[in-house]
Amino acid sequence: MRTPVLETERLILRPLAVSDAQHIFDSWTSCPVVTQYMIFDQHENVQETIDWLTFEQANYDNDHVYTFGLVLKETGELIGSGGLSWEDDCFYIGYILSQNNWYKGFAKEAASRMIEFAKNDLGASKIIGRHANGNAGSEKILHNLGFEFYKDITFSSFGNKKTFDGKLQVLNF
Ligand SMILES: CC(C)(COP(=O)(O)OP(=O)(O)OC[C@H]1O[C@@H](n2cnc3c(N)ncnc32)[C@H](O)[C@@H]1OP(=O)(O)O)[C@@H](O)C(=O)NCCC(=O)NCCS
Fold first, then answer.
1. Architecture, CATH, for domain 6-172
2. What PROSITE patterns is this protein classified in (predicted)?
């Protein structure tokens, strides 16, 4: 299915485009605090964000990749992104917000809508969340959404610059 536009009370979830690159780089992919626990490494220059968004644009029709920009309805600002990506035998969920938008319930709101999409539109029977130990916000969101501890893991970022001890949390439908 082509990545759709979804909606929550305060957010529009829409496909990302290369034209979002400069804003995203300035707002979160270049931020060491925001990217600390992410599976990608902090972007050193805007070209790295362009490369990522080029991948996302090329995968609008990929049934295993759904990435959404999170747009605040009130202001039209792109405040973060979230997604579902297929690994092995199920979708993994992820989310990231620019730091000035933390602690306002946006990640939980977006994740809840993506879970509903996975269940109702993609026919998913389970979703997994992966987080580093110490990423208390991510762990709390997953538990608030009904995820349960699945197993301890060690994982590295795509460029192998960071390695984390962490957890997989699972939500079975
Ligand atoms: C993790 C992240 C997405 C949380 O986003 P958020 O919009 O602030 O989260 P929410 O406001 O929906 O919070 C959900 C719950 O987690 C709690 N929480 C959020 N961040 C927290 C933190 N750093 N430490 C402890 N609790 C936290 C909130 O208080 C809230 O609890 P409540 O439901 O009891 O009120 C955000 O901090 C972020 O973008 N971090 C960097 C990227 C990242 O690590 N992504 C996840 C990778 S696995």
1. 3-Layer(aba) Sandwich (3.40)
2. GNAT
